[in-house]
Each structure stands twice: as structure tokens, then as C-alpha cells.
Amino acid sequence: MPKVVDRDAQRRAIGAALLTVVAEHGLEEVSVRTVAARAGRSPGAVQKYFRSKEEMLLLALDIAGEKAEQRLRAVDRSGTPRQVLHRLVVATLPLDPERRAEAIVWAAFAAMAVRHPPFAEVLREIDRAVSADLVRWLEAGRADGTVALRGDPRRTADAVVALSDGIAARLIYHPEAADELLAALDTALDALLSPPKPPQPGDTAQTT
Questions:
Q1: pTM value?
Q2: Full residue range of the structural domain in which residue 143 is found
């Protein structure tokens, strides 16, 4: 009987190898040859599954997005909203070798997306999916009284995603600042989840 080849599994294995090349050497080192070597395949075998380098890169980006979503889904969502959001953001930060490699991959693709619309659209779709999940959680918490917000849940979700992205980017080139940046994360989350204080007696409007 002829050997049955799982084409999707082969493509995903090659995509995973590409991510490793990016994490170790950068996007500029991605080629059929380097990816084939990392995947333990011949260049011809790689070309059998991908018509172009861009097709290979887009699949790798999809795989990276799936890994990020899986990591977020695995976060413990028990406890206070403040604790849960802290865990969600920390789960995305490059605080160990595996997450650092993932963050380097994201940074490389983000830079590429500036001039390549297909990559920008994939990144936007991933952002939308993460934000939508946060919005659903925030709205449910506000409805049952467990979450206090200063503003609209969508804006809060976007702020959390931007906060996560910004801290992750800083940690890529300044890993020694982890303690300082985690303290900044705490300050930002406190501000996002604290309801505005009601006017106090004696408060006066500022005039100019």
C-alpha cells in the first residue's frame, strides 16, 4: 500500500521549524534551505508543500498565533478580575526562554507587517480575537458585579492588549527590567480596574 502522508501535519512541522529559525537568527535568515535543514528535510521536500516563501511565512505566523491563544486559554481565571488580568498579561511576556523566542518571532513579523499587508492583516485578526475574548470576560464580570471598570470594556481590552505588547517589546531588548516593568503592569491594571472616585465635599472645578 502507498504511504499515506498527512499533508497538513507536514506543513505545520515545516512552519514550526521556520519559527525556530526566526527566533534564533531573524527573518532575514529564512530560506527554503535554512528551514529545510531545521526541519530535517530536503529543500525539495519543503518546496513540495509550499509554493512560495510568503506562503510558508503566513502559515508560521498562524501557528504562532495559535500558540499564543492556547497559552491564554490555559490561564487560571479564578480569583479577582485584577488577578486574572495580571495572569493573562504575564502569560504573554518573554520571562522564560520559550516565551522569549515567541516574542522575538512576534517582533520580527510585526516589523515585516509594516510593508506586507497580508502579514498586517493576520496580526490584526489575532489582536481582534484576543480583544474579543477579553471583552466577553469583562462584560460578563461587569454584569455580575465582579468587575469594576473606568470605561468601556472594549477600550479596556484594547488597553490590556497594548500594555501586554508594549511590555513584551521592552523585555526583548531589556530583560533585566522585568521587575520594574511588572511593577508598572500592576500600576496600570489598578488604574484600569478602579472605578472613578465620586466627587468629594469641598471639591471645586479647576478654572483657567
A1: 0.80
A2: 60-193
